[in-house]
Structure formats: structure tokens, C-alpha cells
Specification:
alpha/beta, Rossmann fold, Hect, E3 ligase catalytic domain fold, five-stranded mixed β-sheet, three-stranded mixed β-sheet, 18 helices, 17 strands, 45% helix
Length: 530
Amino acid sequence: MDGTKKATESGALWRAALYARLSREDGDRAESDSIANQRDLLQSYAASLPETEVFDIYTDDGFTGTNFARPAFERMLADIETGQVNCVIVKDLSRFGRDYIDAGRYLERWLPSHGVRFIAVNDHIDSERGAYDMMMPLKNLFNAQYAKDISLKVKSAFAQKQRSGKFIGAFACYGYLKDPEDHNHLIIDPVAAQVVKRVFSLFDSGEGKVRIAKELNREKVPCPSEYKRLMGERYRNANRIENMVYWTYSTVHKMLQNPMYTGNMVQGRTQRTTMHGQAKEREPEDWIVVEGTHEPIIPKEQWDRVQILLSRSAREPDFEKNVSPFAGFLKCGDCGRSMAKTTWSRRVFYTCGGYKRYGPTACTSHYITMETVEKIVLSDLNRIIASIRDLKELAERGEKQIRPEGRTQGETDRLKAALERVTRLKKGAYEDYRDKLLSRADFLQYKKDYGTQEEKLTAQLEQLRLDREKARNLWDMPWVRQLTDKGRLTELDRATVAETVKEIRVFEEGKIEITYLFSRELATLLGEDP
């Protein structure tokens, strides 16, 4: 958009976007800041502005102001980019956003560069009347701090509830339900609790976890995640393979270790160090445990016996012993589980891991020998390579392509341009501070954030340099020398598979589907785009 104002058919110079936002998480007051109230205020204010017409109303209901990844906000930016909107009206700065770094970037740089008028009604801000009030950066800072304070208060309130033994999770663990009269209290789910009791009893009597899973699958007992779905809960297990509805070793193992079944409330197993950071596992001694908060499903004596049995049966697998070239690459073409390796009569073959552990209730065998897989993959790789007439000439050409003047130059240029941009912004922040347009606190925060971005971009540039250095030496790799000397691969080892194959899916009747993941080095050798 060029920033010029063009009158519409109605004669309006300003095509206004009315933006409203509400989030319970960052402490917004539902009654005074409701979407309906914001919309009414904005429409009334827009109607009082001469030469202004409302283009559209953009509402983000339930989205935090601490970041700008909001659907309506992004749609509004797109309409600004296409020239359909040249004025943005919000109730106040906090409705626009609570992250003062990004809010400042939009208000002081992005919107002015697109010729957009910005109005915050209750903060008495209107860019058409001149430069922004010097208090605006400080207000944005207060809004950001307010969001952080509210986040800490919410965390503190949740922690207090946890220490009081109140359940605050979205879903009760399998075997329990939320009490209809008090959602912070758990009551027993009679159906699921019987399954939990049975799992503990079977293991206590000597049955293994795999055999327990097989038995439940034979009887078509829904696994916990499927049971929740059948009960109408919108529960999603992030670790569950898509379409998997059966019991597994892992499901049984986790159930046997869950102290909730003894009547004790166990919460606070994960922690977020920042408002939107990734949750990290906490050490067991840091968990919040309150005893006797709900009716136990498993008696204490049985629980103690099972924990002793679990500790005795635990053993560390030896991943280094007899590792197959295809370990980690073979998947069942139907259920998606990893293929399991078996040696019989000195021959190695694979079957579906789900079938091997849980029987025909989970999947079918998908039997295939390692010899067959190796033959097919080797043949297919050589078929690809056979299309190249002069590998040595291609290798020399590829070596030139990985130099800075080659195809990686584009990535280098992009990172350098980004680094230069951040440096300019950092310098601009200093100039704004020197000219007293920024407070010292704001300047120091800008300096810190831009410094972090500089470090990341510099690290990416260094990694790119190291990758190029590594690529220059690719011709010394054994499998590459074999290609250039003999024009074909004669055998497969794990290094070669790792450099060429992303995944091998095995279907019934010995059919396989290979997805190649040519690394930058091999892609260069084969003349492919990295």
C-alpha cells in the first residue's frame, strides 16, 4: 500500500478496521471488556468520525494479547496489505496487544509505513493528530507487565489449589470422573475402575505387561484414550499413533506407576518457565502430592507390591547390540508402528511391532526378510544412480555448487540481510533513546531483544559455514567414493541408509514403499535441490 488516501464511492477517506480482543487468560475483565461492549463502543466512535466508514469488524475472542498470532488480527493485516483498510480503531492499547516490543514495532514502524491511521479510543491516541504520545511506549510496557503479573497470579492460584488437593486438570485420569457437584474433586468411574483393578491384579499375579495388553485387546476393551473419546470427551493423547485404539505395553506400564489410584492427588509434574514456553518435566520430588483426596481404586498394600515388582523387572535395553541397518526406518504400512526384528535359523526378518506384541487384534504380520528389504532398497538406489552418466564430473560440479557462490548463497544472503536489519533496528532504538523518544527501560529491553536476535542469526550463519565445510569433504566418505569409483552401490550399511532413506513402509505380500531423504551432500551429488 502506498499510504495515499483515496475516497470511496461514499466519499470516505478512511476505511476503518474495528479490532476487538478478549482473553480470560491474561486477566481481562469480562464484564467491562466483553467483545459486545468493545464492538458497541468502536462502532459508536467510528460513526462520530468524519469521512470514515467501517470496512469490517475483527474480533479475537479467547486469544491472549501477549503475542500477535491471532486469526482476526492476521486477517486485518492482510486487508491492510491489499489496501482495503487504512485505519485501525481499538478500545485501548491493551486490546491491540500486551507485548510492548511487538506492539511498538507495529505502532511506530509497520502501520505508519503502510499509511495506516491508528486510534486507541480510551487512551486518547490518534496518529492523525500528530506523533504518538511519549507515554505510549510506557503504556505498552505496563500492559506487558500486567499480563505477566496476571499470569503469575493465575499460576499461584492454581498452585494453591493443587497444594489444597483440588484437581485442576482438564481431564480426570482413566478410572476417575470429575465430580458433577465439584469439578475439583474426583469420583470413581465404575466401568474404568474395574479395568484398572484388573490390570493391577494381573500384574500382581505374575502376568507381563505385554500379555495384559494382549488379553484386554482380545476382549476388545477400549484403551484409555479411546474410552474417553467414546464417553464424549474431546481428549487427545499427543503420544498416540493416529488411529491406534488398542492397549500397549506403554499404556499398561504408565497405569501401574500412577499413584493417583491410591487416593493421592499428584499434580505439578510439568512446569512452564515463561507464559508461552514449552512445559518441562519436573523431578518427582518437586511434584505436588496431597494424600487422601479421593477414593482409592488400588489398596496401599497392593500398590506397594506392584512397585516392588516393577523395580525388579526393570532392565535397560542394549541398543548398541546387533543394530540393523534399517533400525528406526521400517514402519508398518497399515498401522504405522515400527517393525520388530526377529532372528530365526540364522535369518533376520521383520514383522509389525503391533502384531508381534498384541496379536491380530492390533494388526497383521507384514512379514518380510531383511534380505528382501536390502535387495529392494539397494536395487532402487542403483536405479536412481544409473541415470547419471558421469558421476565424477557431477561430483566436481556439485562441489562448486556448495561453495558460497553456489546455491547456498541464497540462504547466506537471507541471513545476512536479516542480521543487517536487526542491527539497523538496534541502532534506531539507540537513536530514539538519544532523542528522548524512548525511555531508558524501553531502550534497554529493545537492546536486549535485538542482541538475542543478533546472536541467533550469527549462530545460523556459522552453522551454514560449517555445513559448507562438511560438504566440501563429502567426497572422502566411503559410500561416496564407492559411487564415484564403481558407479553403483554394492552393499548397504547403516550410514548409507541414514544418508538416503527417510522411511520404509512395509505392506503385506512383501510390498514396500520407500521415502528418500537425500541429505544436502547426496542431493548435490545427484543434481537434486537440497
